[in-house]
Prior knowledge:
heterodimer; A: mainly beta; nine-stranded antiparallel beta sheet; five-stranded antiparallel beta sheet; 4 helices; 20 strands; 14% helix; B: mainly beta
Amino acid sequence: xxxxxxxxxxxxxxxxxxxxxxxxxxxxxxxxxxxxxxxxxxxxxxxxxxxxxxxxxxxxxxxxxxxxxxxxxxxxxxxxxxxxxxxxxxxxxxxxxxxxxxxxxxxxxxxxxxxxxxxxxxxxxxxxxxxxxxxxxxxxxxxxxxxxxxxxxxxxxxxxxxxxxxxxxxxxxxxxxxxxxxxxxxxxxxxxxxxxxxxxxxxxxxxxxxxxxxxxxxxxxxxxxxxxxxxxxxxxxxxxxxxxxxxxxxxxxxxxx
Amino acid sequence: xxxxxxxxxxxxxx
Lengths: 257, 14
């Protein structure tokens, strides 16, 4: 028996919008810790890891660990039927091949339930090692989104370099080159508007912009984004989900032949 | 030129 009641149902809607274009099918794992997902894109270049902690739900009942295979496009279709202010409850029964999403309007005058077929997914769970990152950049998520979008109109890949000067995003394409440097800036009105650069040592890595642009679909989930870089490791692009957990995207770098 | 690496090159199967 599984019953998870999320008052801020819009969070789940946003999570689906952020993941459905990257991953087609995924297993959602439910345990005492929370509701989580780990999945790679079809080419195994990117990985998404989601955690919504049990404490973030108004009601969280999960009698035993359960893994539910879902087609994210179909799940998104169903969640789009929920209002932005709706409370969403996810219900499942042991051994059942369906999951139910229940939507309640804030004043309880409309209650809907959508039953979705589950699927068997053979997914490999990867062990993500704890890593010391050479540099961690925290910046407004809208700024990161803007940079990725702007650079992808010039080139296909971006070189992200962190030095004492700041973080530099560079690209080149047929029409020319582009460099955007963001310096640390803590003198802002709100903490989420700050750009904070923690650097242990300089680092420079190359990534496909197509994937980074896909990650920025998570921008509505958080005002700020954290980009963690280490040489020859996948970059981690993390959006914190207020009071609940996170969505992390890992992207394998492009490596010189 | 540069080559796209994969996640599985870095993270082992659980």
